[in-house]
Structure formats: structure tokens, C-alpha cells
Design the sequence.
């Protein structure tokens, strides 16, 4: 009987370890957004890059594209979306000329 209780204790401990690890799990999106430098953006950005930059969902970016708020360029046979840097900056209320020179 003590063997079963020790097994249960071990299982509970491993369960609590697993839960604490999942609680600490990060998506990496915050670090991705921090890595994006507004002064050094590529000419074409992915859905995820634009979403991270604007701090909205990628689905929101796609919806904005359908409504014409942020027009997308479709590339390749899958139809992946890319967004012009100028359009994203315009949405932020900036122009490419507003960027400080390095």
C-alpha cells in the first residue's frame, strides 16, 4: 500500500512540474516583436511580422487585407501574403521619410 501512495506522490510531482513548465511556455511572439526594428524593416513583410509589429492577431491582418485597409501582395502558388513596408508605415501614421537616418 505504501508503494501505491509513493507512486501517486511521484505522479503528482511530475504533473505539477509539467503544469509549471506549460505555464512558463512562451510563444516567442514578444521576442519576435522586440526583434523587429522599425528603422530596418524589409521591403516586404509577412503576416506574422506585420501582426507582431502592430500587436494584433495575424487574422486581423488578413481581414484588413480583405477590406482594403492593408493591401496584400500574393506570392507563389499557395497565395502567401506579403505586405509592403510603406503600407505598414502608413498604417502606423508614418512615412518612409519619417524614419531617422542611421
Sequence:
Amino acid at each position: 500500500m505504501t508503494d501505491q501512495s509513493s507512486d501517486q506522490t511521484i505522479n503528482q510531482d511530475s504533473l505539477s512540474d509539467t503544469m509549471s513548465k506549460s505555464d512558463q511556455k512562451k510563444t516567442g511572439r514578444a521576442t519576435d516583436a522586440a526583434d523587429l526594428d522599425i528603422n530596418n524593416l524589409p521591403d516586404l513583410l509577412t503576416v506574422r511580422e506585420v501582426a507582431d509589429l502592430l500587436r494584433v492577431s495575424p487574422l486581423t491582418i488578413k481581414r484588413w487585407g480583405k477590406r482594403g485597409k492593408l493591401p496584400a501582395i500574393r506570392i507563389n502558388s499557395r497565395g502567401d501574403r506579403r505586405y509592403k513596408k510603406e503600407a505598414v508605415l502608413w498604417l502606423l501614421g508614418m512615412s518612409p521619410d519619417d524614419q531617422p537616418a542611421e
